[in-house]
Amino acid sequence: MVKDPVIVMSRIFDAPRDLVWQVCTEPKHIVHWWGGQGFSNPACEMDLRPGGAWLHVMRTSDGSELTFNFVFLEVEPPERLVWRPAETRAGGPPFVTQTMTFEDLGDQRTRWTLVARTNSFADRDSAQLHRVASLAMTVGSTTGSLWRSHLAPQPPPAAPPAIVSR
Question: C-alpha angle 130/133/139, rounded to 5°?
């Protein structure tokens, strides 16, 4: 039986832990994969420290925008990141604290785990959070391919053409 009101997602990436950490904590990377296919990210600002703010704006394929304001509770590079909403809205989804961990598996592989913790089982099992979690799982299936392409080793820059003078 589950003891805590949590939702857990985990994935193993063929990439070193430091790189997976960067892709999850640097706005220049996040804007390329957050939300999955069909979403864009016109704004992402992070003050990556305990008490720091994270502002994220997602745009859906129909042009609607979703704005998220989070506050970081723990920042332990490259192992652990904890955040929660900066505020809750009446009628919004239940309050959720999220913890991302990055486990170095060796051989340039990393286990990434996201634990979303609610205040109660009733919150965890609420229809509204279920819709959000279902969307996250659906988005996660497309986000995984975006992550893999973003984590893929990049070829070194091409050498400039040789110039021969006589």
Answer: 140
Which DSSP category does 76 fall into? E
Q: What is the CA radius of gyration of the chain?
A: 18
- What residue ranges define each of the domains in the chain, with the CATH number in brackets? 6-151 (3.30.530.20)
Residue with tokens 């598996």: 105
Q: Count the Cβ atoms, other than its own, within 10 Å of residue 166.
A: 2
Task: Report helix, strand and coil shares of the chain as percent, to nearest 5.
Answer: 25, 35, 35
Amino acid in position 41: N
Q: What is the pLDDT of residues 77-120, one digit of tens each?
A: 999 999 998 876 665 555 788 999 999 999 999 999 988 888 77
Give the span between the Cα atoms of 112 and 107, in whole angstroms: 15
pTM over 0.90: no
